[in-house]
Amino acid sequence: MVSEEEALIQKVVDLYEQISGLESLKPCKHVDTLFTELVVTCMPPTSPNFHINSLSNPLQQMRSNLIRLCGQAESLLESHFSDLLANFDYPLHHLHLFPYFSNYLKLSLLEFSILRRHCPILPSSVAFVGSGPLPLTSIVLATRHLPSTSFHNYDLDPLANSQASKLVSVDSDLKTRMVFHTCDIMKVTEELKEYEVVFLAALVGMEKEEKLRVIEHLCEFMAEGACLMVRSAHGGRAFLYPVVEECDLVGFEVLSVFHPSDEVINSVIIARKKKKDDDCLKIVGDDNHENGIENGVVVHNKQCCDHIHGFNNHGGMIEELAE
User: Fold this and answer.
1) Which of 60, 83, 295, 318 is the most buried (most CB within 10 A)?
2) Three-state SS string across 13-27, please?
3) Is domain 101-321 annotated with CATH 3.40.50.1820?
4) Domain ranges across the chain
């Protein structure tokens, strides 16, 4: 009998073969249908025994190729809708036309809630790395959750930044609080110290080595005590986006890891850059339940767990919470 994981892998492989054979990934009914089917296939929770790193080398290569195809399709979709929205006199009134806008509303609310729990003083300046042609996270956070914060959006593509800036240029408030930088984040150094929070988009560094280099660079130049908000993936959703693990965040103290189980695809990790004089937190095993240490994982501030659970229709998974 075929297991659920084997059925998942076979379905993903079948869809990959169809997607990789497409002449174009530009939005159209057939392309949209294939990627919607892929997302729906990868969304259900997998068993604890399913580990994406245990896949065979050919499947790992397939996954790597699929993530790149997803990234290309996502960029083309955002570019298409950014141009469409720019035709309106006031684009920000029509963001709901983007088919996944409700997902961005939920993800942004989730990230803001996590940030607020760990950073009681809201940031005055944040950076978003990999903002793209349709910077919905920055727009939603700026308009709904962080109305006094400046947003510095970084992207390699000058066209993407041009499209994005058009969307906010007609808003008297946002055009003063939202800045777009066309550059490689690996070449941004001292400026990173100015941000209290840095958001790292899921598709910045699609290969593991690339992602680790970006994280290492951010750690080197971010201010001590500043927070890094990283998007990752869990279970079957790791076929869609790269996975960032806690051990990848060298130089940071991981504060919270949250895995949604609803239509929000990305996991969210918040970590704080360690200070030079930070003492190492010693984890002593699973016999310290009363001290907040369970099965070798530090779990402080459990009310945050309860609070964030409310964001999912079916609950979510908190792997670690610490102060």
Assistant:
1) 318
2) HHHHHHHHCCCCCCC
3) no
4) 4-90, 101-321
